[in-house]
Amino acid sequence: MEGNGNGGFGRYFERCKPYIAMISLQFGYAGMNIITKVSLNRGMSHYVLVVYRHAFATAAIAPFALVLERKVRPKITFLMFMQIFVLGLLGPVIDQNLYYAGLKFTSPTYSCAISNMLPAMTFVMAVICRMEKLDMKKVRCQAKVIGTVITVGGAMLMTLYKGEVINLFWSHYMHHPRNYAPTSTSGSGEQDWVKGSILLIIATLAWASFFILQAVTLRTYSAQLSLTSLVCFMGTLQSIVVTLVMERKASVWSIGWDMNLLAAAYAGIVSSGIAYYVQGIVMQKRGPVFVTAFSPLMMIIVAIMGSFILAENIYLGGVIGAILIVMGLYSVLWGKYKEKEAENNMTKLGCLREEDIEANQNQREMQSKGVEVVTINVAKA
């Protein structure tokens, strides 16, 4: 009985691992948003931040890839090299530079709200690339579509409607730190907000494209640690070129033992190195739509952390939007769970059919042998 209990718990934990991994990553991404916002507000160039971020990620992941995957690492063909090159361009260069620029013009909570279009963009791309099955006659497919729409609607509600400020019990004890405030407060705040929104939308589109291409690449290059190291290294080289073009002052490269170093190290090790690796593992089992479905949770975490650390206000629209996001997320995950369950049932049914076919063949063989034996005995008689 004890063995059965342990086996049942083991199977349950095995099923829960993808969910635990993706929820943990959202906490990591939320911390990155807060820390990098503080660093950018204090004057760090987002181009330089991207370079240092992926340099830290490469240094952290590459040793593990060299040791643990030395026997299973596939050879890099020209097509594989081009895929890694484009991955480095989509993720480290386009997505993160534009995301940091948008974050500088807006706020962490708003940036996360715009990023909540990621599941919808990824879902549409996955359907176009035939990575995701869409049969609107089935309830699980309807749940995925409806959940995606509700999630995006909740994110847009948080963006477009603020409502009254909700004073939480810790709000009275929080004071806005002077060093965390934006360095410039010009009259063109609305223009900057629109500019930041456009940059964030383009960044999210690049991020969704990154997930799709990563899923395609992992089909032929299954060494996740090595792929993560190569993408981070390629992103570092590409980001250096972009930074040299965009930043002409040598002083922007200087970094000390301060928040800028913490932002680069944290974002590189947690949000690039570990995140790319974990996403790759989960993506191989559940697909890109499952991985991106958890991204709306990051906004809720950032909103709570922002009220603590950056003394950001929490509005009624944000709370209602967060509730809608959770409902949409649950609908998408329910649809993915039912889809996985149906695939497992089909696999079991296929195995049972194969067993039945083998059993029928064996039975026919035994019957034919029995006929032969009877014939021989009759002949002898």
UniProtKB/TrEMBL annotation:
GO terms for molecular function: transmembrane transporter activity. Its main location: membrane. SUPFAM superfamilies: Multidrug resistance efflux transporter EmrE (SSF103481). It is a multi-pass membrane protein. The keyword Transmembrane helix applies. It is found in: Membrane. Coiled coil: none annotated. Pfam families: EamA. This is WAT1-related protein. It comes from Senna tora. The lineage of its organism: Eukaryota, Viridiplantae, Streptophyta, Embryophyta, Tracheophyta.
